[in-house]
Amino acid sequence: MDIVTAQEMYEWDRAALDAAGIEGKMLMESAGRAVADDMVRHIRKQDKVIVLIGSGNNGGDGFVIARTLLNRGYDIEAWQVVPDEKITGDARVHKEIFMASGFSVRPYSSLEKLMQSFQRADIIIDAMLGIGVKGRLRNPIAEIVEAANGLSVFRMAVDLPSGLPADEGIVDFDAFHADYTTVIAAPKMSAFLQHTRPYYGDYRIVEIGLPTRKLPPVNRGLWRKEDVRRTLPVRGKNSHKGSHGKGVMVGGSLLMPGSIAMAGRAALRSGVGLLTIATVERAISSISPYLQEATFVDMEEKEGALTGQATDQLSGYDGVAIGMGMGRTRGAKRLLEAIVQGVDAPMLIDADGLYHLKEILDVVKERQSPTVLTPHPGEFAHLTGLSIRDVLQSPFSCSREFAAKYGVYLVLKGPSTIITSPDGKQRVDVSGNAGLAKGGSGDVLSGILFAMMLQTDSLMDALGNGCVIHGCTAESLTEEKHSKTDLLASDVIEGLSRTFRTISSASR
User: Fold this and answer.
1) Which residues define the annotated binding site for AMP?
2) Domains in the chain: boundaries
3) How far apart are CA 271 and CA 269, in angstroms?
4) Which helix (H) or strand (E) segment is 154 a member of?
5) Which residue of 7, 296, 425, 467 has the fewest C-beta atoms within 10 A of its own C-beta?
6) What tens digit of pLDDT does each residue of 390-446 get?
7) Pairing of strands 246-250, 274-280
8) What angle do CA 135, 136, 137 make, to 5 degrees?
């Protein structure tokens, strides 16, 4: 499913008219009905519902929604919050249909009068402003939004809450705070940003009849369970351990053996055929009981941490993962640089590896084999020199620019994880929950991603699948066995077997 900017949504609407001949008033009728069909799942016949109607497409949708619900016997009170001369074009057509159907609309004259209706309301539906809003709200909509946000009612929004920007990078705004939003055709970029996502509440996307084969392509989309089922490699009857990847993980130290142990176990649980752990000799005894199926290579160490060159020990593998628990010593940095420069194989870099990477990004840029980086926003801010605030406000563009500049695949982790390829394609994973906000969760994700990388030819599929599998495992564990408080990264590893079993059985 595509994720669009405001401009891309405008282009889709234009394509519906130019390429398929779908007139705006017809599309508006389809959109309003689809929204009404979705919203009735949250509306009871005894509920008093206020529909706030503005100008433009959102307002036109509001007239269709109000008419549809009134026709079905719901208790609807429609309020037009803009002067009548601002209701033009297709929205004017649907206002006339609304009135000709025997219904009346109340014109906004003062907040005091509207508040009298608000006080009796159970639900407020926001159909005031659409995707073209820029800057802060002005009265009367500003005062209406402020009043609605202060009420103990269920607030619903059409497409996106009024006042909320559709795009990233905008922080100066006022917006309707919805409990639920019915998104039209495709989610907008702001549904995946930390500072704008809460305004949507829960949301659902409805299809409105756009000509999908005629729409301009968008290189940005959601990656979901059904995508995993469609693309997850099937293990052949005649396959063997060498068929599913031979990988080496470099990391761990005397004082931090757990990171590489969890990453390794997650990789094994995710189907990697052969796994080697390259770590300091004194850490092997604490890691090996946890990874009985892995082999080990003892690496040069200094004061309990990895150091040296040692790239000859890492040849012959289908892929390398590095960084988990390797430490932040100068020796670890030298080792990372040697491996990045000297090992010609697909590589995943995480954790301490990302810390050292900032000073050798030009070396990464010269690699011929694919490189995958898996930072959280703080690590990405360190890599780019941006502030964490800048990263969170514009994660799509920041990720795309960085991936293109250095030729890397970037997995920017968070509640909405953004996966970006060097050519600018982006996928977003929204699975998971707050139970993953624990130490070790990133190590487990890296192990899953590494295993996926070694088992498929498509890196974007591998990274998308790994992220969804990680998140869905946390979701199922907190539904059935754990709370978000007690869930551990190691619990997620042991829950992977059920996730893979469920996905495999559903895809047959």
Assistant:
1) 413-417, 442
2) 6-218, 239-506
3) 6
4) strand 154-158
5) 7
6) 999 999 999 999 999 999 999 999 999 999 999 999 999 999 999 999 999 999 999
7) parallel
8) 125
Q: Give the position of tokens 């109607």.
A: 53
Binding residues for (6S)-NADPHX, by number, are 57-61, 130-136, 159, 325, 376, 443
Count Cα neighbours of 45 within 13 Å in the Cβ-side half-sphere.
3
Neighbours of 83 (CB within 10 A): 11
In CATH terms, the fold of domain 239-506 is: UDP-N-acetylmuramoyl-L-alanine:D-glutamate ligase (3.40.1190)
Torsion over CA: 456, 458, 459, 460 (sign)? negative
pLDDT tens figures, 237-282: 878 888 789 999 999 988 889 999 999 999 999 999 999 999 999 9
Give the pLDDT confidence score for residue 132 in this predicted structure: 84
Residues 84-123 have pLDDT tens digits of 999 999 999 999 999 999 999 999 999 999 999 999 999 9
Residue set of the binding site for K(+): 58, 126, 162
Cis amide prior to 198 (ω within 30 degrees): no
Q: Given 3-state DSSP classes, what are the helix, strand and coil percentages for the chain, each rounded to the nearest 5?
A: 45, 15, 35
Tokens of residue 476, six digits: 């199922």
Positions at the binding site: 57-61, 126, 130-136, 159, 162, 325, 376, 413-417, 442-443
Residues 271, 448 contacting (CB under 8 angstroms): no
HEC readout, 352-407: HHHHHHHHHHHHHHCCCCCEEECCCHHHHHHHHCCCHHHHHHCHHHHHHHHHHHHC
Residue 233 reports pLDDT greater than 80: yes
Tokens of 20: 């398929």
The residue type found at 25 is K
